[in-house]
Design a protein that fits this description.
The protein is an all-alpha fold. The protein has 12 helices and no strands.
């Protein structure tokens, strides 16, 4: 790792870190502030949920919408959280390698005493730091909003909220990892962005298809999104240790492979 490069890249990307981080935190606060309205109309919401097909309820996490844990996991952690973190992971991974190669800026970095391995490793740490920063702000926003805006008897336990955020971070450690690997392979920024975004969309779609139809449930075995189940964690029905280890292993493998690939490939500089 090169400290000077890390500091410079964090400074260049800080605007994105703050935008996505505070955007995510504010959204979880907003959704938490809306929960009392849902709780007051629990009977009407239960009637509405009953007419939704069972498979669609499972896919959207609507099976326990009337509890705060079920509400926040369905309305935020199962829907907007993957979108926000997915966009950030794909976009930032592309910016940190493929964009610099495409624009020729990488030549300036390689002309210094910093090795290719140090550059790729440092850029990977910048991406991981950004993900960690966003998830941390989301976690703090949710905890503070839960304490201030809703009844303590219905709020989500600290440990449960931490587990949802931890597995969420590890899922996007994987998304960031394969996006960074694609970025290390591409000379064209748009191509890298397109491939990483398409992979993320396909993986997310396979998970949704597996939840909606039992005939396609096997598709969930080939997507990392199946290891992230915020509704089950909120209900206390999920075991997170093994899924977390698998996500950590995949993320570590993809980031490590990206560093090796970037070190060995020929660059058009």
């Amino acid at each position: 790792m090169n400290i000077s490069l890390f500091n410079q890249m964090v400074k260049l990307n800080m605007k994105n870190f703050l935008s996505f981080g505070f955007g995510s935190a504010l959204y979880v606060v907003l959704m938490t502030s809306l929960y009392p309205l849902f709780a007051e109309n629990a009977e009407a919401i239960n009637e509405l949920i009953r007419i939704i097909p069972e498979t669609l309820k499972n896919a959207l996490g609507f099976d326990s919408l009337t509890s705060y844990g079920g509400f926040i996991s369905a309305e935020y952690f199962g829907l907007f959280f993957p979108i926000i973190l997915g966009v950030f992971s794909v976009m930032t991974a592309t910016q940190l390698l493929a964009h610099l190669v495409d624009k020729g800026s990488m030549a300036y970095l390689l002309s210094t005493k910093v090795s290719r391995t140090q550059i790729a490793f440092t850029q990977a740490l910048v991406l991981i730091s950004g993900l960690l920063f966003i998830v941390l702000l989301t976690f703090l926003g949710g905890i503070i909003a839960g304490e201030m805006l809703i009844d303590s008897q219905t709020s989500l336990e600290f440990n449960t909220f931490f587990q949802i955020c931890l597995v969420g971070f590890l899922l996007f450690f994987v998304v960031g990892g394969y996006s960074f690997l694609v970025s290390s392979l591409c000379n064209d920024e748009k191509k890298s962005l397109g491939i990483a975004a398409a992979l993320t969309f396909i993986f997310y779609g396979l998970d949704m298809a597996g939840k909606i139809s039992l005939d396609f449930e096997w598709l969930r075995n080939i997507t990392p999104f199946s290891l992230y189940n915020p509704s089950e964690i909120a209900n206390g029905d999920a075991e997170i240790f093994i899924p977390s280890l698998i996500l950590l292993g995949i993320g570590f493998f993809t980031f490590s492979t990206a560093v090796v690939v970037f070190k060995r490939r020929n660059l058009p500089l």
